[in-house]
Structures are given as structure tokens and as C-alpha cells.
Amino acid sequence: MHVPDGFFNVPVSVGAGVFAAAGVAVCLRGAKRELDDRTAPMAGLVAAFIFAAQMLNFPVAAGTSGHLLGGALAAILVGPYTAVLCVAVVLLVQGFFFADGGLTALGVNITLMAIVTAVVGWAVFRLITRGRPRGRATLVAASFVAALVSVPSAALVFTGLFWLGGTAPIEPGSVAAAMVGVHLLIGLGEGFITALTVSSVLAVRPDLVYGARGMTRALTLRTADGDVQVGQQGGPAAPEAPSAGIGLRPVLVGGALVAVLLAGVVSFYASSAPDGLEKVAADKGLSAQEKPHAVEDGPLAGYSVKGVENQRLSGGLAGVAGVALTVVAGGGVFYVIRRRRRGTDGMTTASAQ
């Protein structure tokens, strides 16, 4: 759902930019409460994974594909405020280095793909899990539904923005029907990827899933030495819940290797069909309004390395470079936020003494 330049008029583009900037500012403050010694390094990894997963377009209908948006997944793994920052970092890297998503439409893309998906996904997840025994099955099912709902929600907001300031004379009702219809199908894929990812992290380190904190039922981790419970039965899970000998570093290294594998190798086999927005834009005549991207001649534009003739190698190198750029950019942002939180906590402790 990367909106290119030219789909929206100047007032809507500027307005969305202001809204996105305000939303990111709020999330920079809110993320201080979410980023601790576990979620801070996880956040950089989540951003890199979302970048890699977005390169994997999957077929959803005849001639149409979809890809992960990632807002709901990030919200469940590292918290809703941090999730917005994760996806925003991905969109910035994609827009400025890979010519994916217009630069004048950056505010629209952050609004749709970061803010809407994270807020809606987290709200649905909390609605399902609140007041219920939060075992692994409940968390995974809630993750699927949250991700599924978040995608057509973003499509609806796109339609609302198009009604306010779309550049093509197309009936908004027609756009809404087409966008919501295809993005419901894409949402199924989003739900599956989100549920699979959350389930995988729960299986190895349940305490790393932000949405699993405060469980009313303990999660059980099966190990070679026997079952280990993570979290207290009938009470909130402690932040220092045992990890059954699985350290944070192996999880981060393993996750980074998965991201590199997806972006550098698996992405070559992704569907080449247009994604949901591209298909709707082509069918409705909106694609005629698309403007050339400001960095379309960049060294990584189009997810390929300029000068590398081999298509597989070119795409793979671009994917790995994107993962690295996202880790550096996201890791830097989350490191600074975490440092500021430590400074604030230290001042609070000193003043209390």
C-alpha cells in the first residue's frame, strides 16, 4: 500500500504530513515507557523483519498480490508507540533509498501503514485478550484477527483521504469497494504472517512479546529439561521472567539471519503481480496521476543494485542492504530513546532518595 507521488493534492499531502509528524512525536514520548532492556533491541529487529517481509509479495487473487504492512505485528511484539516508529523507519528507508512510496506522500504512508495499522491492530488485540485467560492459543488467535482487521482499516482511511483530496475524478464509493475488497484478502495473509511470527517468538521467549505481559495465565515453554512456566498463574508476568536458558542475543542473531534470508534470497521468488493499491489504481485510472519518484535513479531504487547485471544477485544485495540500513536507522532511534529513559529513571531515583 505504498502510495506514490501524485495520488493526492497538496492540502491533503501536507495535512497528512502534519498529522504523521504529530503522531510520530507522540510515539517518541510514548515509546520511552515501552522500551526497556528487552524491547529496545527487539524493536530494531522488528523493523528489519518488517522491511524484509514487505519484499515478499504473495498472490491474493488473479493478477493481484499483497505484502505485510506490519503495524499490528510490531504493536504486539514491542508495543503500539514503538510499533509506529518501527514502521515509520521502514517507510523512510524505502522512500529515500529504494524509491518505494512517494516522498511527498510520506505523511500519507506513515498515517496509513504505521499509525492506522498499529493503533487498530493493538486495539483489536487488547479487546480480544482483555478479561480472558491469555494463553498461547488466545494470543496467537488475537494476533491473527488484529492483523486481519488492520489492513482493510488502512484501506478505508485511504478512501477517506482520497475523498478529501484525490487527484483523479473517481467516485469514492467505487474506490472504497475495490480497496476494501482486495485488502480483506491481503489481510488474511497479514494475519497468517503475524500469527506465525508471534507464535514463534512465544515458543522461544514469551517474555519478549509485549502483548503477552500481564498474562493471567502462565505460558509454558517446553524444554529438554522439562516444562518451564513464564509468568505467574493468576497474576501479572514479572519483567524478569525466566527464559529457560535462551539468551536475548541468540534470539536477536537468529531473527536478524531470518530477515537477511528473506530479503536476500526468498524475495527473489516473491510474486511479481501488482499489489492491492497498484491494481486498484490501474483498474480505476488513478495510476495515470503517478509522478516520477525523486530518487528513481538512486543506487538501490527498485530494490536492485545499479551496475549489477545479475537480477538475482542485484535484488539480493539490495535486500540485505535494506535490512542493514533499517537496523542502523531503527537501532539508533531506539538506542537514543532508551538512553533518555535511563536518564529520566536515574533522575527520578536520585530525587526520591
Task: Reconstruct the topology from this structure.
Elements lengths: L9 H25 L4 H16 L3 E4 L2 E3 L4 H8 L1 H18 L8 H24 L6 H30 L6 H33 L14 E5 L2 E5 L17 H17 L11 H9 L26 H42 L1
Helix pairs in contact: 1-4, 1-5, 1-10, 2-4, 2-8, 2-10, 3-4, 3-5, 3-6, 3-7, 4-5, 4-10, 5-6, 6-7, 7-9, 8-10
Record keyword descriptors for this entry.
353 residues, mainly alpha, Arp2/3 complex 21 kDa subunit ARPC3, two-stranded antiparallel ribbon, 10 helices, PDGLE domain-containing protein, transmembrane helix
CATH domain class name: Mainly Alpha
Number of helices: 10
The stretches of 5 or more residues where confidence is low (pLDDT under 50) are 231-244
> What is the H/E order?
HHEEHHHHHEEHHH
Oligomer state equals: single chain
Largest sheet: 2 strands, antiparallel
Q: What is the approximate shape? A: globular
How many domains, in number, for the residues? 1
Determine the strand fraction and express it as a percent band.
under 5%
What's the rounded overall pLDDT mean?
A: 89
CATH 2nd-level architecture? Orthogonal Bundle
